[in-house]
Write a structure and sequence with these properties.
This protein is an alpha/beta fold and 328 residues long. 51% of the residues lie in helices and 15% in strands.
Length: 328
């Protein structure tokens, strides 16, 4: 990259960052109802303006909820509401970015008592806990509410390409008590956190080609899914659960924690596949009940089995995505 292009790219990023800071500050100054209303409008605007993301969301929804059981108008409604929900989430996070906001403000948004009690019970075993979470509802509130309640949360985060954006997001997470470990750091940090009796939380519901993964069924299609959570549970001996929030009404959320996910642990490859398959099945059940709260615009099925033949074979597929022996 030439020096001119680097300067131009940095300038664009700084302008975008400045705009993001200004929008966040403007929304933070509004009352809570105003932040939600403006967030909904921004989400609706994005639905109309972001043609590529809207098209991807509609395509994914149509394949997940095929006609005639789900008519086109319902597909459009779910897609539009998922964008509006993201707008609400943005408004809520802008409110939490205020200097005066702290754990009390987080817990005022989330009914977390039952979920936190469940976490305390599971942590009593002394092996820590692997927590799989997803881009469902306002996912930032999941870890924030648990940390705000006083539990030790280590969040595994992607290191963002622009340091100012990274600092903006992760400083907010740290403010509510979360410890951040980046995906490109040594996994020993996560094993140490589990030995210390901490919750290790991983957002694992997206297709990330640079991460190790397996193909598991997700809405009827093989989806390349990070295998890190199951591998970490296997290596540490810790239990693994699925946890997330769900929006209840317009401005309240509830923290939900699954029972420990049971999977055979004697054979490593089989254990990783079965563990990943199990939590994905639980997540799919939840999304089917609350489709408006998931991020349908993500390219969840972009990696085909033919793109990762070794992962496909470890997953019981041939590179065409069929069961072994059916086609090549």
């Amino acid at each position: 990259m030439s020096a001119v292009r680097r300067v131009w790219k940095t300038a664009k990023r700084n302008v975008g960052y400045g705009l993001a800071v200004a929008v966040r500050a403007s929304m933070a100054a509004l009352p809570a109802s105003g932040r939600l209303s403006l967030g909904e409008r921004l989400g609706a605007l994005a639905w109309r303006a972001a043609r590529r993301d809207r098209g991807r969301a509609l395509e994914n929804l149509a394949r997940a909820f095929p006609a005639p059981a789900t008519p086109p108008e319902e597909i459009h409604r779910i897609g539009r509401e998922s964008f509006r929900n993201l707008g609400r989430c943005f408004g809520e996070l802008c409110g939490l970015s205020r200097r005066a906001a702290g754990p009390r403000e987080v817990l005022a948004l989330v009914d977390a008592a039952e979920g936190v009690a469940r976490f305390r019970q599971l942590l009593a075993a002394g092996r820590g806990l692997v927590v799989v979470t997803a881009h469902l509802d306002n996912w930032e509130l999941c870890g924030a509410s648990v940390a705000a309640a006083g539990l030790p949360v280590v969040a595994v985060a992607k290191r963002l390409y622009f340091e100012k954006y990274d600092r903006m997001i992760n400083d907010l997470r740290r403010r509510f008590g979360m410890e951040i470990v980046y995906q490109d750091e040594s996994p020993r940090k996560l094993l140490r956190a589990l030995r210390d009796g901490k919750l290790v939380a991983l957002l694992a519901d997206q297709d990330v080609p640079r991460l190790d993964g397996v193909f598991v069924p997700f809405f009827g299609r093989p989806a390349y899914t990070p295998s890190g959570p199951a591998a970490l549970a296997l290596a540490s001996g810790a239990e693994m659960v699925l946890a997330h929030t769900l929006r209840e009404g317009r401005d309240r959320h509830r923290l939900l924690v699954s029972e420990p996910i049971q999977f055979e642990r004697t054979d490593k490859d089989r254990a990783v596949l079965e563990g990943t398959r199990a939590w994905c099945a639980l997540l799919e059940e939840t999304i089917r009940r609350h489709p408006e709260q998931w991020v349908w615009m993500h390219r969840r099925w972009r990696t085909a089995p033919a793109d990762r033949p070794e992962a496909a074979r470890r997953s019981g597929l041939d590179p065409t995505g069929q069961p072994p022996g059916i086609g090549v």
